[in-house]
Amino acid sequence: MGVISLAPETAGASRTLKSDIARGFGNASGSYDSASRLQRFMGNTMLQKLQSKEEGPFRSSVLDLGCGTGWFTRKFADLGRVEALAGVDLSAGMLEQARESGPDGIRWIVADAEHLPLPDDSVDLIFSNLMIQWCDDPRSALRECRRVLRSGGSLMISTLLDGTLRELKNAWQAADPDHQHVNQFETELGLQAKVRAELSDASIETRTIRLPYDSPMALAGELRHLGAGFRGGGRRKAVTAPGRVRAMCKQYPREPDGSIMASYEAAWVYWQKR
Question: Which residues contact 73 (CB under 8 A, 6 or more apart)?
């Protein structure tokens, strides 16, 4: 397997929020794969779309942007039709887990999606699953993708939109109205505006995904295991009191069997560089 080369200079993420994000995902690296139902569904949606279009060999160089523990990076390696494969993530902890899982021949790069340490026109396919929503400036990340893609190269991105985890948000709003507990995501119109500004002929597909959980605490636990807990400025500085947690659980709507459902507003962006 070939290697996607690095540019001479490297650029890292220095902002406090990005450090928090990297640390949060790094701390979750050991439990991430076992709690990543949504990530796998959304990534598999893109992979199936790619496979339906590709009858011959895949693109010669593939970049998994925001690769996490490398689940989909390894998927590309297993296909055996990629000459050069790299996984990029902001979290060194995630990449350590990815590196331990192998296989050899994959280049693992700690880097910020808004400042990719890759040359212009160096990649044939960028695959980015549930990463861009954590960027300070998604348009900057899109520009970087456009820059490093070769002519004819493809970009596939998945993300989450406003309305994601609305049941959890509403339950917390009723139980603890003065504080935020759920991450805020981009609106569909906002995503469209950002994408159109950088990739004018990109296509965007959306869908609501509903996943079952045994309880609100099971949902909260999965989010914690994914490293995707709330990071907004309105969060409590101290640990939320058990009474408020119990109140949130009571407010969360239940299914007839006592389980709960969580809604995720999913979006996929597809673009080919001309």
Answer: 64, 67, 85, 87, 98, 106
